[in-house]
Amino acid sequence: MDILTKLNSPFLYLICGSIILFAAVICVIFAVRAFKTGKEMGIDPGKMKRVITASATFAVLPSVGILLGVIALSGSLGTPWPWLRLSVIGALHYETQVAEAAAEAAGIGGLSISNMTAEAFSTIALLMSFCIMWGMVLVTFNGKAYSSRLMAPKTQTKSDKKGKLDLMAFGDPAMTAMFIGLVSAYIASYIGTIVSGNGLFTFTGSWIPLAVSAVAALAMAGFTWIREHRKAEWIDSFSIAGSMLIAMAAAVLFGRLG
Questions:
Q1: Mean pLDDT for each 10-residue chunk of the chain (258 residues)?
Q2: Of 126, 160, 164, 204, which sits 20 to 30 A from 24 (CA to CA)?
Q3: Of 125, 139, 140, 136, which Cα lies nearest the Cα of 15?
Q4: How far apart are CA 7 and CA 80, in angstroms?
Q5: Long-range contacts of 165-169 (CB under 8 A, 24+ apart)
Q6: CA contacts within 13 A on the Cβ side of 9
Q7: Which residue, 94, 56, 54, is CA-closest to 175?
Q8: Neighbours of 185 (CB within 10 A)
Q9: What is the distance between the alpha carbons of residues 35 and 97, in angstroms, rounded to a whole number?
Q10: What is the reported pLDDT for 57?
Q11: Which residues face 195 on adjacent strands?
Q12: Which DSSP string corresponds to 153-220?
């Protein structure tokens, strides 16, 4: 029995499917309770139904990006595990990056089913779970204080030049800086593979990720322009998935050209 058959075994489907079902049941319970609470507060049930319909509609296209992530990872990690990771608490950008890094650390040279071993899969699965579980752990102890901080007004500064650090205002720039650092690291790694020792570019297949990154960036810039200049706030829900689809189409095209 090959490794991919084991990773797609009924036993793994049973374990992962049970966890996903549990999470889905919790979502249904909270949705029902929220609807009942809304009626108790005097909110028009018709309005709530329209909000539910609109939310479900706008959730379809962004979820395509998640589905693409499951499909992309299933070729090397099987279907049950990526399905679980991206259905409960995982994030597409996180899972793919950590899985790739763990595969390289495990010594198989990247996510490839031809090099995958049981030991490597165990390392990848453990790292993917361990690194992302801290949100659940920390919210257990700090959730109440964090929520009260979010609800509180912004910290008042003592003067124009000096004042207390506004943690709420710091959060968004810090997250943006983190992702810029991740993107820069990946781009630099690809540039490093195509630059020869004498500084001349030797174009191989390594140029494709750079070209795809540029296409994805342009696509996202286009979505951002539409949102800002056409006042289309709704497009934010589709920008990531749309950029991914455009970039994947570009990757296929570049792969044929390369």
A1: 88 94 93 92 88 74 77 89 86 80 84 87 90 84 74 48 52 78 82 63 66 92 91 77 84 83
A2: 126
A3: 125
A4: 7
A5: none
A6: 8
A7: 94
A8: 10
A9: 37
A10: 67
A11: 201
A12: PPPPPSSSS-----HHHHHHHHHHHHHHHHHHHHHHHHHHHHB-TTS-B--STTHHHHHHHHHHHHHH
**CA–CA distance, 251 with 212 (Å, rounded to integer):** 6
Q: Can you give the residue ranges of every domain in the chain?
A: 1-138, 171-258
Tell me how far apart the terminal alpha carbons of the chain are, to the nearest angstrom. 35
Backbone φ and ψ of 201, nearest 5°: -75, 130
In the block, tokens 């749309």 appear at 242
pLDDT value, residue 106: 86
- Other CB atoms within a 10 A radius of the CB of residue 70 amount to 20
